[in-house]
Structure formats: C-alpha cells, structure tokens
Amino acid sequence: MSDPAAVMAAMLSDLQGLAGLAGAVPTPAAGIAAPAAGSFLDTLKDAVGRIDGAVASSESKTNQFAAGDKNVSLSDVMISVEQANLAFQTATTVRDRVVAAYQTIMNMQL
30 vs 5, 9, 22, 26, 48, CA distance in Å? Predict the structure, then answer.
C-alpha cells in the first residue's frame, strides 16, 4: 500500500499543476505562481474556476467562429477546445486520486 501522506502530497501537486496548464486560462501575469499557503479548499476552488474558465473560453471562441467572426481562426478554436479538454481530463484524474486516497484512508486498520 502507498503511504497516505505521499498520496495526499501527490494529489496536491496535481492540483497545483492543474493551475499551471499551458495557457488554459489567460492570466495577467506572465506565469502562474504556486498558490499561497491557503487551505486545500481554496486551492480546489481555484483549480475548478480555472477549468470553468477554460471551458467558457472554448465555448466563446467556438461560437465566434461559427458566427463567422474573422478575428477567430480555426486553429485558435481547436487549441482552445483541446486546452479545455486537457483541463477536464486532469480534473477527472485528480478526482479519481482523491477518491482512491479517501478509500485507502478509510480502509486503514487502527
């Protein structure tokens, strides 16, 4: 069995990595800094917000392209859709790891 502390550290690392997806959501800063010493819930809310932003951006670009907007190219739409897809897949993987860690902890003998 894996060490529960190591599993939780890996999950937190995945969440922090989720925040740094390659341009999934445009940010005013050049890079995305690691989250400050906040709670796990704050980190989770931030990650979910970034995923929601990536999906909204993807939908917006898709709708603009479908409406015939000349400022949005097909490559921009495809990149945006792939970034949203990657963000969603990462969130699913993190969710699966959280559930697995919870089950591991609940099955521990005291």
Answer: 32, 26, 11, 9, 21
Domain assignment present for residue 29? The answer is no
pTM attached to this predicted model: 0.58
Q: Which uninterrupted H or E stretch holds 89?
A: helix 74-106
Taking Cα atoms as reference points, which of 40, 14, 25, 6 lies closest to residue 92? Answer: 14
Instruction: Please report the pLDDT score of residue 22 as a whole number.
Output: 43
Q: Is 78 part of any domain?
A: yes
pLDDT digits over 65-77, tens only?
Answer: 999 999 999 999 9
CB atoms within 10 A of CB 14: 16
